[in-house]
Design goal:
Blueprint lengths: L1 H15 L30 H11 L12 H4 L47 H4 L1 H5 L8 H9 L2 H11 L6 H13 L7 H6 L7 H13 L14 E2 L15 H4 L8 E2 L21 H10 L19 H12 L4 H4 L8 H5 L2
Helix pairs in contact: 2-7, 2-8, 10-13
The structure holds heme C (2 copies).
């Protein structure tokens, strides 16, 4: 009898704290964060689906010649960006026009791509799959290849109870994996949770950050999800107008999505075209390089003045945004077992 009571209590506790496997929280929402923008009711998260999305993310089967996977350009150890190249390198050594952004906290994003061309995460994978310079494939052909694979048919059966793979399922499971990429455990977060303290230099850097940067790179996600012109000299190679490509409005010329600065120390090179190799160059841009075009953000019209010491402090603060537990989370890495165990 006593034993039964113990079991009942343990079960109740498990339900209350959400630790039963079915209630497992795959996309944690930290306490002081806004609500995610992604509507999970249209794509209920399960363990099998996440694993499937993760396998697809790392599988070069998604490209025309089986040479390029999503992870070729989005590497887990750099917060899912590509540090070897200024702009992306895809299939047949073709070169794109933009720098691969980090993939993290995507459940909170309202638009995707540097110009916001994609409005829903579930549509995102279509872009690289169909892009001639990236994967040069079609979703229809990807689905055919998956239906011809015993491994994937089995996995889709476990996930959906049906072994016929559809394009919608492919896109939804890929979203599920990407939604689980939550970075919320950097030193910054630990300081906010009163588990650690900033050094003197980091504290000074944080003050400077709040003063000069946080209006666009807004805490706690370090982006305001908006589009801004941060004063980059227009590039002469790609002639990338940014947001205007989507809206065709003159006032959006040279506006780009404000990127999150979480894990920024490892997501170099910086900006939509990877023009700056390191954070020193980025700060030099904000203090000395602002290009005054008609659409320059009003927030950057007044020059930002930083001493060498200020810059060091600001960089110390930016480094507190590096989340080692995210970068080295084995649940985000290549799922070796998926490909070998069955
Ligand atoms: C050849 C390199 C390359 C490959 C392969 C690639 N990407 Fe990307 N990814 C990029 C680049 C470059 C951008 C930014 C493009 C733009 O802004 O126009 C991007 C943007 C994104 C974004 C938007 C992020 C944001 O915050 O705006 C997501 C999500 C994404 N990719 C997921 C994927 C997935 C899923 C795959 C595989 C199906 C994939 N990528 C394959 C280079 C690549
Ligand atoms: C007016 C809004 C605004 C302000 C203020 C601002 N930024 Fe930015 N920041 C942006 C935009 C927009 C981009 C992307 C621009 C692009 O690539 O074309 C960006 C890009 C960056 C990047 C590159 C990130 C990456 O992944 O490529 C870093 C680093 C950065 N900003 C740091 C800072 C710092 C530090 C400050 C304060 C000194 C600051 N920003 C102030 C809007 C702003």
């Amino acid at each position: 009898m006593k034993k039964l009571l113990y079991i009942a209590v343990i079960c109740l506790l498990a339900v209350a704290f959400g630790t039963l496997p079915d209630d497992e929280v795959y996309v944690p929402v930290p306490k002081n964060w806004p609500k995610p923008a992604y509507d999970f009711s249209g794509n209920p998260i399960t363990k099998e689906k996440i694993l499937l999305g993760r396998a697809l993310f790392y599988d070069p089967l998604l490209s025309a010649d089986g040479s390029v996977s999503c992870a070729s350009c989005h590497s887990p150890y750099n917060a899912f960006t590509h540090t070897d190249h200024k702009v992306s390198h895809g299939i047949y050594d073709r070169i794109g026009t933009r720098n691969a952004p980090a993939l993290q906290n995507l459940a909170w994003s309202t638009t995707f791509m540097w110009d916001g061309a994609v409005h829903h995460l579930d549509a995102q994978a279509l872009a690289p799959i169909h892009n001639k310079d990236e994967m040069d494939e079609t979703i229809t052909h990807v689905v055919q290849k998956l239906n011809a694979s015993q491994l994937y048919r089995g996995a889709f059966y476990r996930a959906y109870g049906d072994s016929i793979v559809t394009g919608t399922q492919v896109l939804k499971v890929m979203s599920q994996f990407m939604l689980t990429l939550v970075s919320q455990n950097a030193k910054y977060d630990k300081v906010m949770r009163s588990e650690q303290v900033f050094t003197e230099s980091e504290t000074k850097g944080y003050e400077l950050f709040k003063q000069h940067c946080a209006s666009c790179h807004k805490e706690p996600l370090f982006t305001n999800n908006g589009f801004e012109n941060n004063g980059l000299q227009p590039d002469s190679i790609y002639k990338d107008g940014g947001r205007i490509k989507v809206t065709h409005r003159e006032k959006d010329s040279l506006l780009f999505k404000v990127p999150s600065l979480r894990n920024v120390a490892v997501t170099y090179p910086y900006m939509h075209d990877g023009r700056f190799a390191n954070l020193q160059m980025v700060l030099f841009h904000y203090t000395n390089g602002i290009y005054k075009s008609t659409t320059l953000s009003p927030r950057l019209k007044k020059p930002i003045v930083l001493s060498e010491n200020d810059k060091r402090n600001l960089i110390s603060f930016l480094k507190t945004l590096t989340d080692e537990s995210f970068l080295h989370n084995k649940d985000n890495a290549y799922p070796k077992d998926f490909f070998t165990e069955r």
